[in-house]
Design brief:
With 341 residues, the chain is an alpha/beta fold. Helices cover 34% and strands 18% of the residues.
């Protein structure tokens, strides 16, 4: 039995840091484990321009951690081809994020008509700037458990066909359909996998009472989908790589009458992935999944710094104190068997 893991410092290819005081609070958790992270642009004022991305970048760097934020732009109807060119030239921007309007937290400024963005996809393809996709339709008539598959059928298949050289990251996939789509797509299509979608099914959200701290979007699905996500993560297929989608919300907001979607996994993220891979006899594949495949797809050099994990039982905190409130971490109060040394 392996009791120690030495990994090239991993990258989190999907992360929410928010803004203001909570940014400083959660950033230390990510910076303690990850060398870099693709930082989501869905702030209260969306990061829609290169100037706004640079400002946000400098705020993050100002905390002084040995950590590189990989910035993104929020795709809106007002995004111009000129701004896409500027983004490519900026050196700090590594993708443009597509949110269908209303699908998740701070997505009201998202796209209402994806077809109207095809000219922008063409420009992104020309400039080799990846499209990062929250792959769910926002039509309220579509069942919430079917929205990811519907997005594939209605939009993603056509986007891939029309823009074969456009790099696309299908983020936080949650269905067997998405796994199969990515596996059968060209080498220009990849996907990120979260700990919650690899570990939990919708029973963990709804059985025996609602568990608000397991509520995320895309919503947890049937066990058949959870198993497909898990198998993709541990497969060794370079199309699948680490992206936590860690998203902090105050406990009072999660446990309200209309609770926020988002799981805060950053406190123990790489330890959770070690747990997943270890339980499935795949520890030898964790390094590629966490430290190589994502960097390679984004065209980034692989990190040379190392982190060390040891087999040691420890309990995830029940809550993290923040100002006069709390943040509840993913799997709060549960014992996991790997710990950063």
């Amino acid at each position: 039995m392996k009791n120690e893991l030495i990994l090239n410092k991993p990258d989190d290819m999907h992360l929410h840091l928010r803004e203001g005081e909570i940014l400083g609070f959660v950033l230390k958790d990510t910076a303690s484990q990850f060398a870099r992270a693709i930082v989501m642009p869905n702030l209260n004022t969306p990061v829609t321009t290169v100037a706004l991305a640079k400002s946000y970048y400098h705020v993050i760097k100002g905390y002084g951690y040995n950590f590189e934020p990989l910035m993104t732009l929020y795709l809106t109807n007002s995004l111009s081809k000129e701004e896409i060119k500027k983004a490519k030239e900026s050196e700090i921007i590594h993708g443009i994020k597509l949110y269908p309007s209303g699908v998740t937290t701070n997505s009201k400024s998202g796209i209402s008509s994806i077809d109207s963005c095809f000219n922008l996809f063409e420009e992104m393809e020309k400039n080799d700037l990846p499209l990062l996709v929250h792959g769910e339709v926002s039509d309220p008539k579509v069942d919430i458990f079917d929205r990811e598959k519907m997005f594939i059928d209605k939009y993603l298949t056509r986007i891939c066909k029309n823009f074969p050289s456009l790099r696309i990251v299908f983020e936080h996939i949650s269905t067997k359909d998405s796994v199969e789509f990515v596996m059968n797509a060209s080498s220009m299509v990849a996907a990120t996998i979260t700990p919650q979608h690899a570990m939990l099914s919708r029973n963990d959200l709804l059985s025996g009472g609602i568990k608000p701290h397991n509520y995320c979007l895309p919503i947890l699905k049937r066990e058949i989908h959870q198993k497909a996500i898990l198998e993709a993560a541990i497969s060794g297929n370079s199309k699948f790589f680490l992206g936590t989608d860690s998203a902090p919300h105050l406990k009072s907001e999660k446990e309200s009458s209309c609770g926020c979607a988002g799981v805060y996994s950053a406190r123990t993220a790489i330890e959770l992935y070690a747990e997943i891979f270890d339980k499935n006899d795949s520890l030898g594949k964790l390094s590629d999944f966490s430290s190589k495949f994502g960097a390679d797809f984004y065209g980034l050099p692989r990190n040379q710094d190392k982190i060390r994990l040891i087999r040691k039982d420890h309990e995830i905190p029940h809550q993290l104190e923040f100002k006069n409130n709390h943040i509840t971490p993913f799997l709060a109060g549960q014992t996991i068997h790997w710990q950063i040394s």
